[in-house]
Amino acid sequence: MSLNLAETAEAARPARPASRPNGQWKIDGTAPLNGNEEWKQQDNGLNVRERIEQVYSKNGFASIDGTDLHGRFRWWGLYTQRKPGIDGGKTATLEPHELEDEYFMLRVRIDGGQLTTGQLRVIGEISQEFGRDTADLTDRQNIQLHWVRVEDVPEIWRRLEAVGLGTTEACGDVPRVVLGSPVAGIALDELIDPTETIAEITAKYIGVPELANLPRKFKTALTGHPSQDVVHEINDVGFVAVDHPELGIGYDLWVGGGLSVSPRLGERLGVFVRPDKVADVWLGVVSIFRDYGYRRLRNKARLKFLLADWGPEKFRQVLEDEYLHEALPDGPPAPTPTRQGDHVGVHKQKDGRFYIGVTPFVGRVSGTVLTALADLLEKHGSTRLRTTPHQKIVLLDISEENVEPLITALDALGLEARPSLFRRSTIACTGIEFCKLAIVETKQTATDAVLELEKRLAGIEVPHPISLHVNGCPNSCARIQTADIGLKGQLLPDGAGGQVPGFQVHLGGGLASVGRDEAGLGRTVRGLKVTADDLADYVERLVRRFLAERGDTET
Ligand code: SF4
């Protein structure tokens, strides 16, 4: 039989190599395909704790093995911090060891953001004694301290663990802190209290070796509050309370959200999860990530890439068939949020008392403020508070007669219950002060801009909150793509041959909220960049123009 021309050409071509494996354990086997996967398999990150306690804390920073320092320490919430004085232009050119200091950022994990005043006092005292009085509320309900020495880490763990706190899996390729509604169990309009479910997940699955080598980080959010207050759309897995017409209150399941590289909002699987099934479903989703997640390239290793390839139907099928071994009922349509979910201001609790949401500037507090807050709350009859995914604090169980005296006292601590528009809705990541990946400063830049905007826009009426999120580099720790105004740190030409700190502007992002039907990612406005010095000018112009030109229903 003779071949035609096309067949001849095809036959002459060398055989195409089979497509490269993605490092999916269930499909490609577990042979590590990159250096990170190699050291994670050689020795689980959780095992570094013993070396910190027995060797590194006794022999000092110089004794720390490089892979432990830059890898496994994260499994216990420890990152080296940036050496002071290195400008953002050197971030990409210096080696990691040239950028880092001998001090650590230590992240205290606070699942559901639930704290007692006793716990808060311990964090505040640790900050004052071991962290040069630093403390930042993160946008994932954690509290981060800086300037921590490895010598002090065992004592810090001892004190945290004595009050039921810790740093286990606060960073690393693991299930990170579980975001939970800051008003769980107390809000008058709550659909369901997720507190016990969060406790079940953390007690059973945090710090267990079986889930301590995931392809990358795995983020969880769970809320029973109708404001949908846990930014579930940008988590790897999210459970949002929903009222099923036949099955009662349960959860709507979302998977595959994440920002940073290739930002993507999570998708609903269309299932209804009964409250007593949440921990099993959570385990199923995280197990899919462990077994099928992509491990070849780290920048393709988040769950969102698997979901993008599979789609929600296949994801649901695999979850039901291979992990739950039962079908989940279909869920009702997605609920829409009923009010703003930052919980700032004074609100009534189920029991007739009140909760008060207060805002420091861009999450920055100090050990001194935290201990003073613990004292103040106890003086006003409360022992409970919550951190929020918006760098805020919610104070619980305040009797009516204590509300106004407490608000006045909180003002003196820099914690405002009735903040201005931008003070309320501005968040900022760590930035160049401590972060080795940063290009620009963030916390002070954002604070200065907010103070200036408070003066310039005093008394102005806006139809809904306008969020300003400030990021120190192209990552998205401050969720720039989900803000009305998102700022991505970069250096800009100064017109005289040099460079100055500035930002690429993203506009129009937002998660589901009142007045906004559905979540959407902000868009980069081509060529629209603003220097740090011009930030307040730019935001003022933008807000005034938006208010002047917006249509009646435009957000
Ligand atoms: Fe650091 Fe960049 Fe994250 Fe900011 S966004 S904390 S600069 S990695």
From TrEMBL:
Region called Disordered, residue ranges: 1-42
Superkingdom field: Bacteria
Coiled coil: none
Bias kind Low complexity: ranges: 1-18
Cofactor(s), names only, from the UniProt record: [4Fe-4S] cluster
Catalytic activity, reaction form: hydrogen sulfide + 6 oxidized [2Fe-2S]-[ferredoxin] + 3 H2O = sulfite + 6 reduced [2Fe-2S]-[ferredoxin] + 7 H(+)
Keywords: 4Fe-4S, Heme, Iron, Iron-sulfur, Metal-binding, Oxidoreductase, Thioether bond
PROSITE patterns from the UniProt entry: NIR_SIR
This enzyme's EC code(s): 1.8.7.1
Residues covered by the Nitrite/sulphite reductase 4Fe-4S domain: 172-324, 424-555
Residue ranges of domain Nitrite/Sulfite reductase ferredoxin-like in the record: 98-163, 347-412
Any one GO MF annotation of this record: 4 iron, 4 sulfur cluster binding
InterPro entries referenced in this protein's UniProt entry, alphabetically: NIR_SIR_4Fe-4S, NiRdtase/SiRdtase_haem-b_fer, Nit/Sulf_reduc_fer-like_dom_sf, NO2/SO3_Rdtase_4Fe4S_dom, NO2/SO3_Rdtase_4Fe4S_sf, NO2/SO3_Rdtase_FeS/sirohaem_BS
Keyword 4Fe-4S applies: yes
Keyword Iron-sulfur: yes
Gene3D superfamilies: 3.90.480.20, Sulfite Reductase Hemoprotein, domain 1
Described purpose of this protein according to its UniProt entry: Catalyzes the reduction of sulfite to sulfide, a step in the biosynthesis of sulfur-containing amino acids and cofactors.
Family: Belongs to the nitrite and sulfite reductase 4Fe-4S domain family.
Name by which UniProt lists this protein: assimilatory sulfite reductase (ferredoxin)
